[in-house]
Design brief:
Strand content: 5-15%
Shape: globular
Helix content: 25-40%
Order of helices and strands: HHHEHEHEEHEEEHHEHEHEEH
Structural class: alpha/beta
Largest sheet: 7 strands, mixed
CATH class of the largest domain: Alpha Beta
Bound molecules: pyridoxal-5'-phosphate
Strand order of the largest sheet: 1-7-6-5-4-2-3
Number of strands: 11
Number of helices: 11
CATH superfamily of the largest domain: Type I PLP-dependent aspartate aminotransferase-like (Major domain)
Length: 398
């Protein structure tokens, strides 16, 4: 072994020998899977290299580029059709990085009023204190968006569809209005997994995904991605990730990489089951409305038909108002195959009632009734339907 610079040729003490491994990857060995590089310190060949290596792909420190991470970011950028991707510790962290990169004191951001709630809380509880104002818009009123831009509006958030109330906005119209004002657009593209909605093809500037959902796909991983349309936006977002020291663990990166090859197969299975379960629910008298983008009664269905190539496994129903909140809870509590919990897109189905007052920033668009959101997993749809049938009986009698 090499005993280290300056001491070559002398035998090291056992303690030194135990610390300095002789390992180098064997030549001629190749695996089909990406190795997990578990690393903080990255070794440079000499001091000069510490002064010249830079840029998002440069191997400088484990917090930044590693071969494992670069494989994942390259794959996600290709999947989304964007310029380049960075990783964040969660989908929410990815949203926060975009906000902090694009907004400064005195700026204004527009957020859809049905947005994933922590995105809204970020605006109320963090951006506000930094002197950044937020306005909320009705995602189904793209015609009115032009009137909501202010001279200091810098960012327009889009979520397609809204991840609880499922409205599908007219993304090209929102993007066109933002472009006319020089406002950057960022979309939460998690529902489509980047597969059923091509954000950059529709003119969006930044696509955020909770890798936690369909990319990971097994409810065992938290991660977010930010993909940008160009280098200028990437550099701004990447600088904030770096400055905040936001990293992702190599095992999680590996899990995301392992999820990618099966993502399309899984997504199609989630889609088919969700359509079957939602179609069954639609015929039930206890159900007032099924909020599934592929169904005509879902707000924005025409936008979905025009802009999306499929649907995933997440949808909601509005149950008739005559039932009590307690009977809705009893229905969900007693489900066998649907588990109760946040998040979605895993193999195990989930069900969760939402309190209506939490759904919108301004409650004007709320629909009377009880909203229950379902994430349809990979169980046999017949079992899920039988479970729901028993649940609806509990709803009627509780
Ligand atoms: C639409 C949407 N975006 C983003 C997120 C955030 O993802 P994460 O749980 O990885 O923070 C979620 C999580 O539920 C979500 O539903």
């Amino acid at each position: 072994m090499s005993a280290g610079r300056g001491t070559r040729g002398t035998e090291p003490d056992l303690a030194t020998r135990l610390v300095h491994s002789e390992y180098t990857p064997p030549t001629g060995f190749a695996s089909l899977t990406t190795p997990i590089h578990r690393v903080s310190t990255v070794v440079f060949p000499n001091v000069a290299a510490t002064r010249t290596r830079s840029g998002p792909d440069a191997y400088t420190y484990g917090l930044h580029a590693t071969p494992t991470k670069l494989e994942l970011t390259t794959q996600i950028a290709a999947l989304e059709g964007g310029y380049r991707t960075l990783l964040a510790p969660s989908g929410l962290a990815a949203i926060a990085v975009v906000d902090l990169a694009l907004l400064k004191a005195g700026d204004h951001v527009l957020i859809p009023d049905n947005v994933y709630r922590p995105n809204r809380e970020l605006a109320h509880r963090l951006l506000d204190g930094l002197g950044i104002a937020a306005g909320y818009y009705d995602p189904m009123a793209a015609d009115a968006i032009a009137g909501q831009f202010q001279p200091n509006t810098r960012l327009l958030w889009i979520e397609a569809p809204g991840s609880i109330t499922m409205e599908v906005p007219d993304v090209p119209a929102l993007v066109a209005a933002a472009r006319a004002r020089g406002v950057v657009t960022a979309i939460d593209n998690t529902w489509s997994a980047g597969i059923y909605f091509r954000a950059f093809g529709k003119g969006v500037d930044i696509s955020v995904q909770a890798v936690t959902k369909y990319m990971g796909g097994h409810s065992d991983l938290l991660m977010g991605s930010v993909t940008t349309v160009n280098a200028e936006l990437f550099d701004r977002v990447a600088a904030v990730r770096r400055l905040l020291g936001l990293g992702v663990g190599p095992d999680d990166v590996y899990l995301a990489l392992r999820g990618l090859p099966t993502m399309m197969v899984r997504l199609k299975a989630h889609e088919a089951s969700a359509l079957q379960v939602a179609g069954w629910l639609r015929g039930r008298p206890e159900v007032k409305r099924v909020l599934h983008p592929a169904f005509p009664e879902c707000p924005g269905h025409d936008n979905w038909k025009r802009d999306f190539t499929g649907s995933s496994g997440l949808f909601s129903v509005v149950l008739q108002e005559k039932y009590t909140a307690a009977s809705v809870d009893a229905m969900v509590d007693g489900l066998r195959w649907f588990k109760i919990g946040y998040s979605w897109a895993g193999p195990i189905s989930l069900a969760l009632p939402y309190r209506r007052e939490t759904l919108f920033n301004a409650n004007g668009r709320d629909e009377p009734g009880h909203l229950v959101r379902f994430s349809i997993g990979l169980e046999a749809p017949g079992d899920l339907i039988a479970d729901l049938e028993a649940g609806l009986a509990r709803l009627r009698t509780a």
